Amino acid sequence: MKRDDMMWQAEAAEFGALPGLKAESMDTRAAPTALSPGPGPGPMDLIFIEGFEGQTIIGIDASELGTPQPLRIDLTAGLPRSAACSSDRIGDTIDYGKVRTALRELMATHRLQLLEAFAERVAQLLLEDFGAHWVRVVVVKPKKFDDVGAVGVAIERRRDASPRAQDRGHGWLGGTVSG
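and the corresponding structure tokens:
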């Protein structure tokens, strides 16, 4: 197994994305991957929401497209040394109450089929609307299959590598396109 794969598995286990896999049993002594938050230009403060649950219509099977189904979202958003550490003001950091509200709205309004596209939309929301510099988003469909505890995706993005920046204004993520 490649070292990057082992790092991802350890991180996914830490955030509960791989049921049954214990983070403490993983060998994570390798240098961080290119998209991991450290080491970088300075200290990174991580704001997270773990175990957000909601109902939405998402999927590619006909049986998934008529009735909302449960999704679980774990996210981590990084800021370089949040000013809130010194100021004690919510305006100097990412307000996870507002993130929660935005997630609820997204789950009610999106028209995406794949968890990958949904996770990408969440990542872009955090990067663009909440000023995160780095994000990790895990989206899980619990009990998608009778013999599987959960299926899902985990993605990491940095602000400078965001697909919308590479999109060149085509708006493929479904957001507004500025001219």
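(Above: one complete record from the training split.) Strands lie at 44-56, 69-80, 134-142, 150-158.
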